[in-house]
Amino acid sequence: TQELSNLNGTLRFQGKQVTSDLKGEMEEGIFHLKGNATWDTTSLQTVDLTLKGEHLSLFQPGVFHTDFDCNLQLTGKMPNPKLAGNIDIIAGRYFKKFEIRNLIIRPVAEEAGTQRTNPWGGTQLQLVVKNPGSFEIKNNIATIVLESNLRVTGTADHPDVWRPRRDELLL
Fold first, then answer.
1. Integer angstrom CA distances of residue 85 from 51, 53, 147
2. What span, in angstroms and rounded, lies between the C-alpha atoms of 166 and 126?
3. How far apart, in whole angstroms, are the C-alpha atoms of residue 117 and residue 121?
């Protein structure tokens, strides 16, 4: 779990809408979350949120850890909102174990019953991901240091990742 602390600002609940203008700290980083969301009696319906962060951390035990800066907008209707913006990876490490079968390298499968459905899986992606720092893959197969300048589109469940040619510029 990740801890939020030193929260300042407002969360305003009005009927089926919540409006946020919050600043705070998450682990070693700082963030500002501004915007609103609406829901019906049981589920989130629409979102219009902006997240700006510096030195934020995201991790999944046994899989990866990354530190990043971001300027992101999450907008639209559920279950297919759009997540757009920029992510600058400061440092990261992917360490999930891989297996080799029939000369194909793939992540070791999770045990039956541990895979979860993603309620955000239909989220449309329009992201630019750069890493001026380092991102390291270190597991039972290899140690690789990567640099990236990527555009991520598609959906959260089925992302399309591409790298521009040297003469293209991502904005």
1. 10, 12, 19
2. 20
3. 8
Q: What is the rounded CA–CA span in Å between residue 148 and residue 103?
A: 26
Query: Quick one: 81 exposed, middle or buried, by C-beta within 10 A (0-12, 13-18, 19+)?
Result: buried
Contacts of 73 (CB under 8 A, 6+ apart): 49, 50, 51, 82, 83, 84, 85
Q: State which amino acid sits at residue 76.
A: G
Question: What are φ and ψ of residue 77, in 5° steps?
Answer: -95, 145
Sequence-distant (≥ 6) Cβ neighbours of residue 2 within 8 angstroms: 26, 27, 57, 58, 59
d(CA 1, CA 34): 22
Q: How would you class 112 by CB atoms within 10 Å of its CB: exposed for 0-12, middle for 13-18, buried for 19 or more?
A: exposed
Tens-place pLDDT, residues 115-162: 557 889 999 999 999 987 667 777 777 777 777 788 999 999 999 988
Task: Say what the pTM is.
Answer: 0.79
List the structure tokens of 85: 């913006």
Contacts of 150 (CB under 8 A, 6+ apart): 128, 129, 130, 161, 162, 163
Q: Which two tokens stand for residue 42?
A: 């049981």
In 3-state terms, the chain is what percent helix, strand and coil (to 5)?
Answer: 0, 65, 35
